[in-house]
Amino acid sequence: AAGVIQSPRHLIKEKRETATLKCYPIPRHDTVYWYQQGPGQDPQFLISFYEKMQSDKGSIPDRFSAQQFSDYHSELNMSSLELGDSALYFCASSLGGLAGWGTDTQYFGPGTRLTVL
Amino acid sequence: GDSVTQMEGPVTLSEEAFLTINCTYTATGYPSLFWYVQYPGEGLQLLLKATKADDKGSNKGFEATYRKETTSFHLEKGSVQVSDSAVYFCALGADGLTFGKGTHLIIQP
User: Fold this and answer.
1) Total beta-carbon pairs less than 8 A apart between chain A and chain B
2) What three-state secondary structure class fits B51?
3) Chain A residue closest to B34 (CA)?
4) What are the E-state strand segments in B39-102?
5) Which of A67, A85, B35, B89 is a Cys-bridge partner for B47, taking CB atoms 3.0 to 4.6 Å apart?
6) How far is B52 from chain A, CA to nearest CA, in Å?
7) What tens digit of pLDDT does each residue of A72-82 get?
8) What is the mean pLDDT of chain A?
9) pLDDT over 90 (residue A95)
10) Of B29, B42, B96, which has the smallest distance from its Cβ to A45's Cβ?
11) Interchain CB distance below 8 Å, A102 and B98
């Protein structure tokens, strides 16, 4: 079965540079979520999109932005990178994920490991 | 806000031992509850879920019951295997998930 695809899988950047992470959800899934997992930490929810509109917002820094496109793929744009941004970034997708519906299972991608030097 | 508390690890067991990983939560409303497993270097895989009180989620010998009265969702398995060694996350949510800190499970032969 098709899974969530993330690219790139690994990314190395310098401080103050920008990075763009891409996520391709499972076919027919209309909702995308982004999470950040620091070393040895639990995943922290950043932001989600349903039908190309932002549906929920978590602890996403102002330096980061994201969007969902008409083909449902999503991109996370990160600017002015800091050392503390080094982490695994996961994308997840689900079907019909408006906040409050509550039952839709999120399927996670393999993650993008971002290293900021 | 919502929060999840799960037992800290690492938890080390011998093969075929009984496993319990405790998870309690605080939440507004009645969110769905999940257990995800993460193997080294990999993403999160859904292990099981429950969507309402008294629901029991089960998969691959693992079980957890949504207990509203004790706000708990403890993970259990009757006989663990070496291949169960991984980090287990309890989570809740209606949109963005809130995760516990994770429990590192080590199963020794």
Assistant:
1) 62
2) coil
3) A105
4) 44-50, 56-59, 62-65, 75-77, 86-93, 98-99
5) B35
6) 9
7) 999 999 999 99
8) 91
9) no
10) B96
11) no
